[in-house]
């Protein structure tokens, strides 16, 4: 048994769910998280002031896949 964790953009959730379903993985846990990485955040304006948002919305997916070694 192998635990798989992935942190992705929210817009990619449906694609990842479809890919997991196509290989027979149907049980997943989805959590909303915030983080920064390669995207490095963004600059926004609020009431005329510029500020940097360095934590972006992300989705964390957790699932368990059975490996052939664990079935022996």
Give a brief rundown of this model.
The chain has 72 residues and is mainly beta.
Structure description:
- By secondary structure, the chain is mostly beta strands.
- Helix content is 14%, strand content 49%.
- It contains one helix and five strands.
- The protein has one helix spanning 13-22, and strands at 2-8, 28-35, 42-46, 49-53, 56-65.
- A three-stranded antiparallel beta sheet has the order 1-5-2, with no helix packed on it. A two-stranded antiparallel sheet has the order 3-4.
- The longest helix is centred in the N-terminal third of the chain and has 10 residues, at 13-22.
- It is elongated, with a radius of gyration of 17 Å.
Write a concise keyword list for the protein shown above.
72 residues, mainly beta, 1 helix, 5 strands, 14% helix
Give the structural class: mainly beta
Largest sheet: 3 strands, antiparallel
β-sheet strand percentage:
over 45%
Give the termini distance in whole angstroms.
11 Å
The share of residues in helices is: 10-25%
Rg, please?
A: 17 Å
Whole-number mean pLDDT:
85
